[in-house]
Specification:
about 35% helix, 3-stranded antiparallel sheet, 4-stranded mixed sheet, single chain, alpha+beta, 8 helices
Length: about 230
């Protein structure tokens, strides 16, 4: 497993936009044009470009030949490369991508104020009780710990929100060990790791094995631009 990250708040991200947008599909370009906020377009572009760069480097194939397909729930995969698995997430200034030879899920979230009543809907009763027992200073971070873990699991499973969020639960009191239980189903995606990429963000990865990346590799935007230009 390898995990990569790009900081899209750097001035170079905006400067290279018009050069890099030509490296993605026409469908993706049209989607980026529809974003109302420039930061959303930046994240969307760099998520796509980062993935393409990694695929081309790993599989030694040209960018123009890449074809993506989607399962019934919208999870993407690379056509004609069944052993190459990936997952992408972005929030705030960060875009992250995890790659592996097994399916996996990754989620990153910026720590923003939230109504904790949301937890009644998206967390199990056990998770919500543990959340509300946290002191005021740590409750927000705990909320996003749970949220990113749950999102990473949903993305690894690849079933979208057809998987009820209350049907699985995390227990975090014994960290770094992460307790995980399911109700009414079994899963192979029962290994989790949290990463500290940025103090203002939470990030988690879910996999079917425990061979996690030791660190997140930050990609220099200038290097990315120069190398992507040779991938055609």
């Amino acid at each position: 497993m390898e995990i990569y990250a790009i900081d899209t708040s750097k001035p170079e991200a905006e400067r290279h936009y018009e050069l890099l947008v030509n490296q993605v599909s026409l469908e993706k370009q049209h989607k980026l044009d529809r974003f109302l906020h420039r930061e959303d377009a930046l994240r969307g572009l760099y998520a796509d470009v980062l993935l393409r760069w990694l695929v081309c480097r790993q599989l030694k194939i040209p960018n123009a030949s890449l074809q993506f397909t989607y399962n019934a729930f919208g999870k993407p995969s690379l056509l004609n490369a069944p052993a190459f698995h990936f997952n992408v997430s972005h929030s705030g200034k960060w875009v992250v991508c995890a790659i592996d030879d097994h399916p996996l899920g990754i989620d990153i979230e910026q720590l923003r104020p939230i109504d904790f009543e949301v937890g009644r809907v998206c967390f199990s009763d056990t998770e919500y009780d543990a959340l509300m027992q946290q002191d005021a200073e740590s409750r927000l971070a705990y909320f996003y710990d749970l949220w990113t873990l749950k999102e990473s699991f949903v993305k690894a499973e690849g079933q979208g929100l057809t998987l009820p969020l209350k049907s699985f639960s995390f227990e975090l009191e014994a960290r770094p060990s992460i307790g995980f239980t399911t109700e009414g189903f079994t899963t192979e995606y029962c290994h989790f790791k949290q990463y500290e990429l940025d103090p203002d963000y939470k990030m988690a990865v879910c996999a079917a094995h425990d061979h996690f990346a030791q660190e997140v590799q930050q990609v220099d935007i200038n290097t990315l631009r120069l190398e992507v230009a040779t991938l055609a």
